[in-house]
Amino acid sequence: xxxxxxxxxxxxxxxxxxxxxxxxxxxxxxxxxxxxxxxxxxxxxxxxxxxxxxxxxxxxxxxxxxxxxxxxxxxxxxxxxxxxxxxxxxxxxxxxxxxxxxxxxxxxxxxxxxxxxxxxxxxxxxxxxxxxxxxxxxxxxxxxxxxxxxxxxxxxxxxxxxxxxxxxxxxxxxxxxxxxxxxxxxxxxxxxxxxxxxxxxxxxxxxxxxxxxxxxxxxxxxxxxxxxxxxxxxxxxxxxxxxxxxxxxxxxxxxxxxxxxxxxxxxxxxxxxxxxxxxxxxxxxxxxxxxxxxxxxxxxxxxxxxxxxxxxxxxxxxx
Amino acid sequence: xxxxxxxxxxxxxxxxxxxxxxxxxxxxxxxxxxxxxxxxxxxxxxxxxxxxxxxxxxxxxxxxxxxxxxxxxxxxxxxxxxxxxxxxxxxxxxxxxxxxxxxxxxxxxxxxxxxxxxxxxxxxxxxxxxxxxxxxxxxxxxxxxxxxxxxxxxxxxxxxxxxxxxxxxxxxxxxxxxxxxxxxxxxxxxxxxxxxxxxxxxxxxxxxxxxxxxxxxxxxxxxxxxxxxxxxxxxxxxxxxxxxxxxxxxxxxxxxxxxxxxxxxxx
Lengths: 319, 267
Hints:
The structure holds two protein chains of two kinds.
Chain A: H1 2-14, H2 35-71, E1 73-78, H3 86-98, E2 103-108, H4 111-122, E3 135-141, H5 149-159, E4 163-166, H6 169-211, H7 213-221, H8 226-266, H9 270-279, H10 286-316
Antiparallel strand pairs in A: 1-3, 1-4, 2-3
Chain B: H1 16-19, E1 49-57, E2 63-72, E3 77-81, H2 88-96, E4 103-108, E5 111-112, H3 118-125, E6 128-131, H4 143-152, H5 158-171, H6 187-199, E7 205-209, H7 217-232, E8 236-240, H8 244-248, E9 254-259, E10 262-266
Parallel strand pairs in B: 3-8, 3-9, 6-7, 7-8
Antiparallel strand pairs in B: 1-2, 1-4, 4-5, 9-10
Helix pairs in contact in B: 4-5, 4-6
């Protein structure tokens, strides 16, 4: 029905007539603005911005996961020292750890288990007896409760001098720094994309104004205020921005959905494991999709605002 | 020009050729000062337009309009005339403030235009109706939408002005072309559409640039009567024309004659 009405309207327009009730014609003719090209540019920009926002969210979520899992474990290394019984030292270190507040579980690696840890690098069949292989005690901390690592460190230095406590703080700090760097980088890329979009819209608006200068002049003479003329342009460019934002944002969401399905099918392959190590399950959470949608809406709003600002600034130079 | 007949006898330098009544011994070139203006019947403004020693030059060239001093009173009717290229359209653009003078003072509805902001300028333009020589209809709007444009830009609802616009379009004889686009209108039809657009806001001042340039003498007479009716309703009228025949149909109208960059006024 709607298509038929549109067809009839098109026929009437071709005959040089348009009836009342066809809806008020915009004062800035849509055909005078290179809308298709601008929608394409805005869609590409939104897609890139959406990818950046989504990827940053993925890396940040994965890094948070790494950090929380690393931060809930500490390791005690017991080095073999001549004249001391390493098995006794390991047992002593494990006992001290168990006695510490905030410790949930303690697991001391046996000599065989320690040797097996080295097999991937040194191969099997070596005489490990002649090597001073340190023994490990893995201590799992209670979540949501800070363990008294200072007293454990002091007790170890007093009672098991060949033991070293590694609380993975350096790793956690490095992971945090990396995650923050990636998020900052993503923000930088987002800002650049938004600036590029703004400049593109500003150029397109100036072009549209130059092409419609006669119309603007007539509008001024019949009493249109600058705000009214700016509204006309803003409405048009906001529509283009929404169209481009929806296309680009939709493409970015589709990309992450497809990537998630693809990552699922790569699971248990060497490549898939690496991707999973970097990005977790490559699953964009609700916040990630929300970030993509927010970016698309921001691009559309920015398009409308920039066109309005450009129009008002240009109108100031016209009497 | 104040109290001095222009020298020279060429077409361009002989404004009395356009003065009409001056040639019949009735007119005189006295120039006008604000004090010379007839007492306006409008209670709103002493003067609709007031020019004092206004000059205009483009770039570093010589002045194309100089020492223009005149007033347009409320409810007055005047023809602005002179040879082609004398600056009639330029003078109208100065009144419309689409051009700014290089010297002198322009006052519109008692507002000094050098001191008004854009909002006030918009308000002043809403009190003026303009008929452009080239019509300036918007090609992508229908005749109805073009005529309704001044009301639409004021933010009025269409339901509130639809019948008013339709009635005016019928009054100028274009009732059957209500929804036609300007491309399919004849020159005369465009002319009447442009006039209707200028009249729809019932302006305090109507500026018309060669409003009968594209119509036959009979329609020209009808349009002049239309302007005279509007004038009786309280609108000050300025019609730029070099059609002496048209001016002779309204002998009581004041004549502002541009020649050699100066203005000569015949009351």
